[in-house]
Amino acid sequence: MSQGGNAVASGISGESKVNALISENLNIEHSKITRLKYKACWYNTRMNENDFLFKINNFTVGGEVKNQNGGGSKDICVMAEVSNAFKKAIKSKKNTRNRCNKYFIVLAGSHWTTKRGRNIMKAAREDIRIFSKFYGTSADACKVILIKDFAKNLKELKK
Questions:
Q1: Which residues pair with residue 148 across a beta bridge?
Q2: Measured between alpha carbons, how far is 68 from 6 in angstroms, rounded to an integer?
């Protein structure tokens, strides 16, 4: 399989794992997990879609899954996803028409435990602090987390 084909298969695998976690931990039927369409921050002509969108306790939760098992320049797209989250998805004082109250960027795969992967997570979390101040959201409106921590975060949404 080509490198691009492997990337697509890997991405689908990550999304499937995350959707299963949502269904298992929140008792949300798979058919109720949808996607949010938006125009990405890089002004592409086609609409982008995030990887999951669902409602719980009057909250709309969205997110993106990045499944990466090896190094490569694609890993820095996490930073673009943080930007898209704040500009196009998360409700804020500046973006009242956005739909999400909470947004997760879920990182799956072995790459995120490497030094480079951890550094990218750290940089993304720094960007979240900057964006949350600029847009006037809470610091936890957007989270970059490892898939192993996603279930715990889902359970907190049930409270």
A1: none
A2: 10
